[in-house]
Specification:
The chain has nine helices and 14 strands. It is α/β, with parallel strands linked by helices and about 375 residues long. It has three domains: about 100 residues, Rossmann fold; about 70 residues; about 150 residues, Heat Shock Protein 90 (2-Layer Sandwich). Helix 6 crosses helix 9 and helix 7 packs across helix 8. The radius of gyration is 32 Å and the shape is elongated.
């Protein structure tokens, strides 16, 4: 494919300089646009985007500094490289030109070889920048298509899993042998976990794109937490799961289903990474004047300190010390972070290897009307 001829704009009020530079550049194979005034050049830039601008400073009316300032303030022109060519040779002038967005500075009287070397360099850099920008835009389109396809597949998988979970619940109602019932329970637990994983994948994408509507209502966070515990059922195995809910008003304004899933994700994470027999999980709800905190503490293996800052990152997984087990699926905690922050809250984790982890989140507390409220 034939390569496009680069275009260079020259802005200089000295006609002899315009003529010399124009001849130099045309002989080198460049397209040239020449203007004796900055205002005329700016009108032309609005229609034709040059690959490089050679700009004089001392001009009547609008000087080169002002022309550069206008170029760099425009969304469509800020990426056009500006090479200053001026008789002003002080360090102060050069620094000012570069601080305004100029990419280079040549002093007059200029040398042919120097100007052409700098022109070639900046034209090539601009060509590479444009190619990189085009490749990035193409990549974004492909990524959006991949994301859409993934969401369609995951949505279909979740529908199938929901059907499987429903049928397993029905199967548990029949008279089954102890061994068969254990198998059904294991399949039920695994299917529930897979359903949560697929839901997290879909909702993380929707929340990132701000396409997941939140339905805010007044909710008692203590009641939501107790409801999650009731649904935990066989997932907890023989682990000890305790909860502390203060005898006070714990109302927040939130999407109850979303916050329920946050608590559920954090609790399932704690279950997954504690021992089936001696695992211990403690859920504590506390209230301050303007916040309500939910914390879930476990006695699992803990998270390495170097991974704590990244544990909520999308697709980031932390390997535990034993058996290379992954601490989270890489999306559940991301969903929790996005969900809590969408409610104006904060989320965090403290952990120590060999002692366990405490995941917590805080939500803004609604003003209480209860006379027994502690302040």
């Amino acid at each position: 494919m034939r390569r496009r001829i680069p275009t260079i704009m020259i802005i200089d009020d000295t006609l002899e300089n315009l003529r010399v530079l124009e001849e130099m550049l045309k002989e080198a194979g460049y397209g040239v646009l020449a203007f004796p005034r900055g205002d005329l050049a700016l009108r032309a830039v609005a229609k034709a985007r040059p690959d490089l601008i050679l700009l004089d400073i001392m001009m009547p009316g609008m000087d080169g500094f002002e022309v550069c300032r206008v170029l760099k303030s425009g969304e469509d022109t800020k990426h056009i490289p500006v090479l200053f060519i001026s008789a002003l040779g002080s360090t102060e002038d050069k620094v000012k030109a570069l601080s305004l967005g100029g990419v280079d500075y040549v002093t007059k009287p200029f040398q042919y070889e120097e100007v052409m070397a700098r022109v070639r360099t900046h034209v090539e850099l601009q060509r590479q920048r444009k190619e990189l920008a085009a490749a990035y835009e193409k990549l974004k389109v492909l990524e959006a298509q991949r994301e859409k396809l993934t969401q369609m597949i995951v949505h279909d998988i979740r529908s199938l899993l929901t059907s499987i979970v429903g049928n397993l619940e029905l199967a548990k109602m029949y008279s089954l042998s102890d061994e068969a019932l254990k198998s059904v329970d294991r399949a039920f637990v695994s299917s529930k976990l897979l359903t949560e994983m697929t839901s997290s994948m879909l909702d993380v994408s929707r929340m990132e794109e701000e396409e997941l509507p939140l339905r805010f209502t007044e909710v008692d966070i203590g009641s939501v937490t107790k409801g999650v515990l009731e649904d935990l059922g066989g997932l907890k195995g023989s682990r000890s799961v305790r909860v502390s809910v203060p005898d006070t008003d714990l109302k927040v304004k939130c999407d109850s289903q979303i916050i329920r899933r946050v608590i559920q994700n954090l609790l399932i994470n704690a279950v997954k990474f504690t021992d089936k027999e001696i695992g211990s999980i403690f859920i504590a709800l506390t209230a301050s004047r303007d916040k309500i905190r939910v914390s879930i503490e476990d006695n699992g293996h803990g998270i390495p300190s170097e991974s704590l800052d990244r544990v909520f990152d999308k697709f980031f997984q932390v390997s535990s010390i034993e058996k290379g087990q992954k601490y989270s699926t890489g999306l559940g905690l991301t969903f929790c972070k996005l969900a809590v922050e969408a409610h104006g809250g904060t989320i965090g984790v403290e952990s120590e290897i060999g002692k366990g982890s405490t995941f917590w989140f805080e939500l803004p507390r609604l003003p209480s009307t209860s006379p027994s409220m502690q302040h």
